[in-house]
Amino acid sequence: MIAKRYFTIITFLFPTLLFAQQTIQGKVVDQNGNKLLSVSVGILNSKLSATTNENGEYRINNVPKGEHQLVAYFVGYKKQTLTVTIQKDQNIQQNFTLEENTRELQQVEIIGVENESYNNAYTFSATRTGTMIKDAPLSISTVTKELILDQQAYYLGDVVRNVSGVNQYTIYNDFTVRGYRNQDGQLVNGLKTAFNFWTQPIIGLYERVEVIKGPASALFANTNPGGTINFVTKKPLTVQQGSATVSAGSFNTYKANVDVTGPLTKNEKVLYRLNAGYQTTDGFRDNMGGESFYIAPSVSYIQNENTRFNVDVVYMQNNTKLDRGKPNYEGSTDLNQTPITLSTSQPGDYLKLNNLYTTFSWNQKITDWLSFNSSYMMFRSTGELAEHRTNGKYITPSVLEMRYVERDEYENADNITNYFVSKFNTGKVGHTVMVGFDYSSKTYDKNERQARGEADGVPDFDLDNPQYGNSNPNDYYYDPNRSIQMGAGSYTQNHTMGFYIQEQLDYKKWHLLMGVRQEYYKDVRIENGEKVSKDQNALLPRFGLTYELTNTINLYGTYTEGFQPQDYKMNASQNGGPFDPRKSNMWETGAKGEFFDGKLSATASVYMITVNNILVQDPNDVDKLIQRGEEQSKGFELELNGQITPALSISTNYAFNNATITASDNPEEVGRQKENAPKHQAGFWTKYDFQRGTLRGLGIGFGGQYVGDRFTNNPELVLPDYMLWDMAVYYNIGAFRVSANIKNLTNETYYVGGYNYDRVFPGMPRNFTLGLTVKF
To answer: What is its main location (predicted)?
Structure first.
């Protein structure tokens, strides 16, 4: 009924489509003659395409006269390109037989993606075996590079608005997923990172951003109970192509990036890809702004159909200031009494961050039924900080005590994963068995000195009369008891090692996933000049079942357990540690569907997550943490992504999340909604591309985001809900694309997150971006 309704609307609006006569149609099957569903068939260098139905059939209407390159593409099969010539009023029958492609569906994802859509049909990281998302018994959200481009997104925070159940906790690399704070632990290509907390990752170099919902410890060891964010880097392609974009926008913001790829050798055994980008901005906050850039080369070596290597190198730099949020009057819930531009940063403050990581991947097909996969990532992160910030105390309701901090930080992560995948059949049952081992370590160290309050020479900050540049940090007194030297009280390290086995059974319409992981974790800290260590082990099961209700709709259910030792920095005694690890479990059930010939995907899920031993800030000491007994998150999520018609693309989501405190030493907070965890949130984005007539080449995008009210660390301070509206206009002419994006159309004043009266984080006011892209 839905498909017929949209067909009626399109027919009414565009009656000229009824008179075009040239048509290409046919059937797509595999080597055994089996019909293939959801295969993309299209004409190169055009927007004309179709997707096969349950009978393996496709049909492309309105094909111009002349010679065309017709291509059929599906993950896990070799792409096939055929030349066809069509005359006026001619209908052509063109069938395809696709061969399975071991280069395409690797257990380690080291192949580029050529298709362009808001919809992503497969996942590697969630199972490590290359699985169609509709067959995976868990909720997986994806934001593709096409949606990132259309929204002109730059940081991770610009992206997660397209994912159900995810919102910003602060403006840092700090998000809430299904009610649980995710401060770190993000993955790149399924490997652990050490991204800086104070700025969000730049996302222009990634193919897509995935959020694997729920505890994923059975695969990735210590992970967030609400979900894991995974970045998939852009990989080399076998076709030579490139694009470059420049843009300018509000607050003196200027950006440029380039993306080029292709073969380095004639036999296409060596491929390359290079992504690079730069941004400079003044920002909308006082004494903020800065610049950032990244460069990301990637090389793949395809020795033969059985052996493949890939190397990724990424370097990111961010030179800015640490934004500690907007201060407000003590005890006042009217956050608009101070302007959203107000900050406590001084002109001489700075924040200089560097991320460098290198990934090596190797995929080896040993036999027709056995393959081996190995990946190693070396991640290095450094930071230099000088900042003026509040000290968590008010002298009067309008005057805050301040502190000054200078800090050098060093953090690294090394991890390696090795696993075998075996695919075989026993009778009518298909098996995909994975057996693996991984090891990772993280190290953190720092130098730091602090001066606090007027007693140390740091001036107070008066909200009624803010002063900037009225003091010199060289004149402050730095208490030696608050100074930290590298390796002397700040050094922390952890090691985690795991063995795991996973089985995926396929029998008729049933898909069963079972897995278990044995985890060994060791934390090492410097306490009073001596090394102190703690060992923690966990056995982590995972179980999921999928049933194919129809050709387009699957039902699924899953149970999984999570384990997350507290961050080694947080575990230090200076923060109140050591603390017990977070332990979690999740029950989830839902349905997944593919509609409009597989071009539109939908997921509906219901879940319950229970977590013990949550770390929260001590309300009586801003520098300390305390451990809470138990929290529970119950919710419902809905997502739709893809195309309704060749011209109309959509990405929409809704989440209801009742995340509450269920056990605590403080009886007053039991039953209260968790901090920065809205009960309701929703988002949508839709784009329409005119494909005929005088408006051909024009595209219009429109969207919105709603986030409900949220508690902060102070139970009296509640952040109000907000609704944002965005729009965009695109025009494509030849190889060029001109775009204009306007965000926060109504100039809404809103807050993405907050801690207390002295630190809330305002969102960006109305802003625009004009961009020019050229493809070559």
So the answer is: membrane
